[in-house]
Each structure stands twice: as structure tokens, then as C-alpha cells.
Design a protein that fits this description.
single chain; mainly alpha; two-stranded antiparallel sheet; globular
């Protein structure tokens, strides 16, 4: 498990996964040519000015095809929006033939409702409304993202930046952000795997690696300038299956990459894990805590990159599998009393182990204690996921607050950018604040010694990085680059 720095703390990251579009079948019944009622009298010829014209045949509307594909990491997603399907041409709008007015009068006497004869006009555009019958939608409405999950992801990012600024040991107990993020990612991954597994894995890699490469160019070049010479391990800066190497000068920037490495391994293993989970959901979910128990009490694993990856995977495996359980409806079917008892028991054990082993780890910080982190996160995330499924929580009310809703949207669409650049922003905030001391007005009126002031300056720099570098996430998602989503 990656270590934490006491100044800013251990980096945590979040995986943004995009909303999940739903499938909406299209096609409307009731269109097409309608039979005209039989008239009890001989048909009268049309007036000369109208000429002999056949009854117009109305066109059947085409079925709306489903072209939307589940978006993979941001805003969709990870962070995702649905793709509007192609539009079909509506039926032509026509006017009634006045020559049939007297026929209608006779039909009313016979208590029959005639079909109006319509003369075709020029074809309407795809945006025109159809005047005869219920109007078909011109395009498929984009599916709404789940604001409950989006809000949790945004809060997790804010908590990470706060933890790296203040170093609060209790922050992980109040909001175990990493466990929550792995749980959300597991849910989205289970949804994505309804499509071919190879396609899903390639899509995840495509959305994750380009922002990582872009960020890595700056970090690697900076470390090379500061006397760092890499060996063959530099391949981990291409595909972070292991912790990428670096020197002590850039440690605070690159040590957060443990999350990308763990997330990447979960993505690669998910097709197998999901198949195994669906064989016996509840037993497999319970057994997903076994690896961390084995590493803690039986065998600690190798002391290298492989061993570090094993610890992180084992710590958050239960949370990832909880995402599968939420997606498949397993949590919703469980008895509420059982869920609450098991969750509180896991939280209680995790807290007990953290406080009783402070001497061993030097703190009760969950990020320094893998076993305590695993159980505390397991209980916390289980309650959040179960409440979401059982009570149908969706945070739809958030859309009424435009600014807050906008912030949540940006955080989810730029989650990778915020995570990768937030430590660099906090590092740069220190020398920037030092320059403020040279300005008498700043020294007099600004709380330059306060960590809260550094927290604010850090967020200003994060916003700058989002504007300057966030477009890489759009390119990775094959979207048009934008300053803000």
C-alpha cells in the first residue's frame, strides 16, 4: 500500500465513471393509411378546380434506432452522456379538402366520423411538428446521470484535496473516499460489461491512459532536470501496472499513482471477477474480504511492486464487488436488518483495529492501516449502496440548484484531471503564497499563514489546470475538446 506524507498526506484518486444510458425503444403505432368509410351514396366527382386526385397515402414513420453506446470515464463513463439517435422524417403536413364539406355533413347525420382527405404539401423538415397524430420526438433525449453517485464522487474529490492539505487522520473515517470510489467504479464496470469485455477494457484504457501520459510528461521531465535517471522500470510510466518510478524530489506528485495502478488492475480482472460473482453472489461477496485477512495474518506477500499491488487490490476488493452487487440488485434483495448489522459490524471491527494498532502504524489513519481500511470502507460503502438501491435515492433535487449542479457536473467530467493535478497545485501554492509576503497589503490583510488560505489557493490552481489540461479527457473520450464540459 502506498505511504502517506505527513505534510500533505498520501494521494488518493478517483475513477470517474460516466452515467449509463438507458435503452428506449422507439416506434409508434397508429400511423399509416386509414380506410375511408363506405359511403351510402354515389361518390361525387371533385370540382374541376381540384381535379381528379388520388387519396394521399400517409407514410409510416421509421423506427428509431438505438445508437447510444455507454460512454466510458468521464462524463460521460465514467463522467457520461447518451448519444442522440438519428431522426426520422415526420409525416407531411397537409390541408383538408374543402370539397368534402357536404360529405362530412351527411356523415354526421349518420353518426359516423369521416377521415379527412388531405392534400400533400412540401415535405416538412425533421424539426417540424406533425399535424396529424401525436408528434414523434425529433431526437432521443439524453439519459440523465445518477446525481447520487455523481455527488458522492465530487465529495470524494473534495475530501482528498482537504486531506492532502490538512493531513487529518480522521478524514477517512468520516468519508472513506477511496472505498466509495472503487464501489462506484465497480457498479459502472458491471454495467459496461453487458457489452463485449474486450471492447470495454479497451475503452477504459483509452479514457484513462492519455490524461496520465499528458500529466506524466511534465512530471518525468521535471524529475530528469533534477538528476533522475530511470531504468527499465520507466515502462510503468507507459502502462502503470506497477508503481511508476521516480526520485524523492517528485515523490509528492507521483506517489498518488497507486490508485491508477489499482484501478487498472480491477478493470483487467473485472470480466473474470464478474463471472465468478454471478456464480454465487453472496458467498463470493463475503469471501472478497479473505485476501486482506490472509495478507495481514498469514503471508504478507513479496516486498516489491507485485506485493504493493496485492495489498491495494485486497484492501478494496470488497468495495469493487459491492459495485457488482448493487448493479445486479443483490443488495436490494437483502433483508434490511441483515445489511445494517453486517455493515455496522464491519465498521466497528475496522475502527477497533485502527485504534488498537496505533503503536504499530504510528496513527489511527485508515490510509496507513490496510485491514482497518478494508473493513471500515466495506461497512460504509455497503450502507451507501444499499440505501441507494433500497430507497431509490437519486438526488434529482440537485438539478434545482443550478450552480451546485454545475459544479458536480464539472467535477465528474474532469475527475481524472483534478486527481492527477491536485498535488501539483498544492505544491505550487506554497511558493506562490511565499511571494505574497513581499506585498505589504497581502501581508497585512490576508491570512497567509493559514492552511485554509493554502486550501483556497490550491483550488484556484486546480481550476486553472482544469481549464488548461482538462481537454485531454475530451480527446481521450473522442469528443470535441472544451474548456469546461
Amino acid at each position: 500500500m502506498s505511504w502517506e506524507q505527513q505534510g500533505f498526506g498520501q494521494g488518493q484518486q478517483y475513477s470517474h465513471e460516466y452515467g449509463q444510458p438507458s435503452s428506449y425503444p422507439y416506434g409508434y403505432d397508429g400511423y399509416g393509411p386509414q380506410p375511408y368509410p363506405q359511403q351510402p351514396y354515389p361518390q361525387q366527382p371533385y370540382p374541376q378546380q381540384y381535379g381528379q386526385q388520388p387519396y394521399p397515402q400517409q407514410l409510416h414513420p421509421q423506427e428509431y434506432a438505438e445508437y447510444a453506446e455507454y460512454p466510458e470515464y468521464a462524463q460521460n463513463a465514467e463522467y457520461g452522456q447518451g448519444v442522440a439517435v438519428d431522426e426520422t422524417a415526420p409525416l407531411p403536413a397537409v390541408d383538408a379538402d374543402p370539397a368534402l364539406d357536404r360529405h362530412r355533413d351527411l356523415d354526421r347525420d349518420l353518426d359516423r366520423e369521416p377521415e379527412p382527405v388531405r392534400e400533400p404539401e412540401a415535405p416538412a423538415s425533421v424539426t417540424d411538428e406533425v399535424t396529424d397524430g401525436p408528434p414523434p420526438p425529433s431526437k432521443r433525449a439524453a439519459p440523465q446521470r445518477d446525481r447520487y453517485f455523481d455527488t458522492l464522487r465530487a465529495l470524494a474529490l473534495i475530501r482528498v484535496v482537504a486531506y492532502h492539505t490538512f493531513g487529518w487522520a480522521w478524514a477517512g473515517m468520516v468519508f472513506p473516499s477511496m472505498g466509495i470510489m472503487f464501489g462506484l467504479a465497480g457498479t459502472l464496470m458491471a454495467k459496461s460489461l453487458e457489452r463485449p469485455a474486450l471492447k470495454v477494457v479497451k475503452s477504459r484504457l483509452r479514457r484513462l491512459l492519455p490524461p496520465f501520459w499528458f500529466w506524466g510528461v511534465f512530471v518525468v521531465l521535471a524529475m530528469l532536470i533534477h538528476d533522475w535517471m530511470p531504468g527499465w522500470e520507466i515502462v510503468y510510466w507507459v502502462v502503470p501496472l506497477g508503481d511508476p518510478p521516480g526520485n524523492a524530489w517528485g515523490e509528492q506528485a507521483w506517489e498518488i499513482l497507486w490508485y491508477l495502478r489499482t484501478y487498472l488492475w480491477f478493470v483487467l480482472l473485472s470480466p473474470l471477477l464478474l463471472r465468478l460473482f454471478r456464480l454465487a453472489p453472496v458467498p463470493v461477496l463475503a469471501l472478497s474480504l479473505a485476501p486482506i485477512l490472509v495478507l495481514t495474518f498469514v503471508w504478507a506477500g513479496p516486498d516489491n511492486r507485485v506485493g504493493t499491488a496485492m495489498w491495494d487490490l485486497s484492501t478494496y476488493l470488497f468495495c469493487w464487488m459491492l459495485g457488482f452487487a448493487h448493479r445486479d440488485g443483490v443488495l436490494q434483495r437483502m433483508k434490511p436488518a441483515l445489511v445494517v448489522v453486517v455493515s455496522l459490524a464491519a465498521i466497528g471491527f475496522g475502527g477497533w483495529y485502527a485504534f488498537t494498532h496505533q503503536a504499530e502504524f504510528g496513527t489511527y489513519d485508515l490510509d496507513e492501516n490496510p485491514l482497518a481500511q478494508a473493513f471500515w470502507s466495506a461497512g460504509f460503502v455497503m450502507l451507501l449502496m444499499w440505501a441507494k438501491a433500497y430507497f431509490g435515492i437519486d438526488f434529482a433535487w440537485l438539478t434545482r440548484f443550478r450552480r451546485t449542479n454545475r459544479i458536480v457536473t464539472v467535477f465528474n467530467a474532469r475527475a481524472v484531471t483534478i486527481y492527477l493535478w491536485h498535488e501539483i497545485a498544492l505544491i505550487l501554492a506554497v511558493p506562490l503564497i511565499d511571494r505574497f509576503w513581499d506585498i505589504p497589503a497581502f501581508e497585512k490583510y490576508l491570512p497567509l499563514e493559514s492552511q485554509w488560505f493554502m486550501f483556497g489557493v490550491g483550488w484556484l490552481l486546480i481550476a486553472l489546470f482544469v481549464l488548461l489540461c482538462g481537454w485531454v479527457e475530451d480527446v481521450a473520450a473522442r469528443k470535441k475538446p472544451r474548456l469546461l464540459p
